[in-house]
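so my prof wants the structure for this chain in the tokens format not the other one, which i didnt know existed until like an hour ago. anyway here's the sequence
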Amino acid sequence: MIASINWNLTEADWTAFLATCPRSTFYHGPAWYRANAETYGMELAPALITLPGGEEALLPMAIRPKYRGLIREAVAGVGGGYGGLVTPRPWPMDWVQVAFRAVASRYPDLYVTSNPFEHYFNAPLPGFGFRMTETSTQALALADLAALRERYSRSRRKQCRKAMAEGYQLQAMPVPGQLDTFYSVYAEAVTDWVSLRWVRPKAFFERLFAYGSENLSLCFVLEEGRPIGVRLIASYGEVGIGVIYALKRGHETGSASSALTEAALALCYKRGLRFYDFGASGSLSGIRYFKESFGAVPLLGVTAERQGMAGRLLAPARTAALWGARMIRQPGAG
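here's what i got, hopefully its the right format
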């Protein structure tokens, strides 16, 4: 079985097809891809894949240069978001593999981040040159706050009661007109982050707010009228995603963080969403525990990476160059 691919989708076509796919997320949409592509120098390449029987799937992708532009790698799942095929109904795994083989015939260097909310991730299987790595996010099924609080840990319920007693103010609003307020909180918060890998420039958020405003909301927590924390929430289909969570220094783990998170959960439930995705925690056990204390559970996923012939030839040379540079920088080397 051989799939055909339409590489000339308009954003309107892209958006319309996503609307037929119940497990697609904001991360699969053109707003997220455009903001990332324009900020980080990538090229949009959404692929509409059709099987001989007429079944269709969408693989949103962006193309990024590797090895100083010698290779063009296709990425399905940009900026830490989810990728994988999105389909109106679940596909058998053999169909999924046919689709990825067709994509790899054009882009042999291919990196796919699966969608943990999708049927069997809709990502490639091991084999056909793909190297797999297990990933996870943390999410919970939404309910009204009374029901959610039954799932909280004892310490989290205590923090929520403390937040109400301390009189923090909460505000939920759409993103238009809020870029400067949002970024002032974010920019101060990220100075204390353990890893700066996902710190974004203001230009990224300016684009994201412009392209994705219909699906984005902000929750602020205020102390004496001044914002001290913010959650940026992306809502699409069944899932609300906590894209950004930022609290100013001194408030990261206290009652303000509990109040802000509850406000985000309440907003998503009010909008009829089924799930709230806190995002991945990686090796940060404190952040993982914070999410678990609200009742979040892990959802497994995978990343699948495939290198074409040129990539396989260049990768050892790049590794050797990096090791050589490291040895030169070591004190006393040479």
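also thought this was worth mentioning. Confidence is low (pLDDT under 50) at residues 330-334.
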